[in-house]
Amino acid sequence: MKQFTNVKDIGPLNEALHDAFEIKKDRYAFTHLGKNKTLLMIFFNSSLRTRLSTQKAAMNLGMNVMVLDVNQGAWKLETERGVVMDGDKAEHLLEAIPVMGSYCDIIGVRSFAGLTDKKSDYEEKVLNQFIKYSGRPVFSMEAATRHPLQSFADLITIEEFKTKEKPKVVLTWAPHPKALPQAVANSFAEWMNATDYDFVITHPEGYELDPKFVGKAKVEYDREKAFKGADFIYAKNWSAYTDPNYGKVLNTDRNWTVDTRSMALTDDAFFMHCLPVRRNMIVSDDVIESEKSIVIPEAANREISAQTVLWRMLRSL
Ligand code: CP
Fold it and tell me: What is the four-CA torsion angle of 81, 86, 88, 91, rounded to 10 degrees?
């Protein structure tokens, strides 16, 4: 595998899940594969889970790991071509990327949406420049429009916890005080649409996602209807996608917080969230602390999704 930025890159999901569960059975079975190979993880944005789980995954495979926080200690990088660089950005991405590529074998990149220019965000400018100019296999550690390592971990988790062949999975918008990208929601929808689950998206009017990601999902504006009979509730906030409100917070209505009252409508559903989560905005204390909350095993599976992707990339070097 030479790149991992979306669900198509992983190929058939049954094969990806097979690899993931084999790795989970014995995550140290392939320590020889990464010997003398180096992973460079580049963060333009903060992280807890992605940073730790991906580093652990690489170490499980015997790799060396380097981490660069672009905004802490590195030269500030210009990303646009044609800019007269007389400001505070000392280096252009077009030199920095091949230099970084020369020090490693595989590159992971985290670069969030700016939420001011939809066209630029949805072109995935930063991620695509790494793919084009690094000369190395590149994987997304959350880009402007998708978070595939998270979605892969989410899929692994649903497969582990489901009690019926085709569970009802509901992606629900939930309130948040700050504008967040659509990446996790887009990506989750993309991966769920690649399964044969009964997949429903619910959100207030104005929070419609890019139709490309909504795909064949049922969109239900009435959250009570959406929650009825659900086996998994996947909560996430996102800012508006639709013009002229791109990147804006349209409401913070706490009637959309996932609480015990709304979970009671479901078929005893599991609660999921990618974390970090704002308690009593996105989800009540009671729900996230309940025995139906699987946010911790979900986060733990980030190590498995990352290791599966790295394992495949190492095998194709
Ligand atoms: N879910 C997730 O990607 O967490 P971090 O932002 O902490 O990496």
Answer: 50
Distance of alpha carbon 305 from alpha carbon 55, whole angstroms:
12
Atom 1 of ligand 1: nearest residue by CA position = 274
- What average pLDDT score do residues 177-189 get? 98
Answer whether residue 43 shows pLDDT above 90.
yes
Rg of the chain over CA atoms, in angstroms? 20
Residue 139: which H helix or E strand, with range?
strand 138-140
Which has the closest alpha carbon to 126: 92, 103, 154? 92
Nearest 5°: the CA angle 74, 36, 141 is 45
Q: Which atom of ligand 1 is nearest to the CA of 45?
A: 6
What is the C-alpha to C-alpha distance for residues 52 and 42, in angstroms, rounded to an integer? 13
Q: Report the pocket of ligand 1 as residue ranges, CB < 6 Å.
A: 47-50, 142, 150, 274-276
Dump pLDDT digits (tens) for 217-227.
Answer: 999 999 999 99
Q: Which two tokens stand for residue 316?
A: 């194709």
pLDDT of residue 315 exceeding 90: yes
Strand bridging mode 38-43 / 77-78: unpaired
Of 153, 155, 156, 192, give the one whose Cα is nearest residue 171.
192
Angle at 42 between CA 38 and CA 45, to 5 degrees: 155
Does the predicted model carry a pTM greater than 0.85? yes
What is the separation of C-alpha 32 from the centre of its chain, rounded to a whole number of angstroms? 28
pLDDT (0 to 100) of residue 210: 98
- 187 contacts 194 by C-beta, under 8 angstroms: no
Nearest CA to ligand 1 atom 6: 47
Cα–Cα distance for residue pair 242/70, rounded to 1 Å: 30
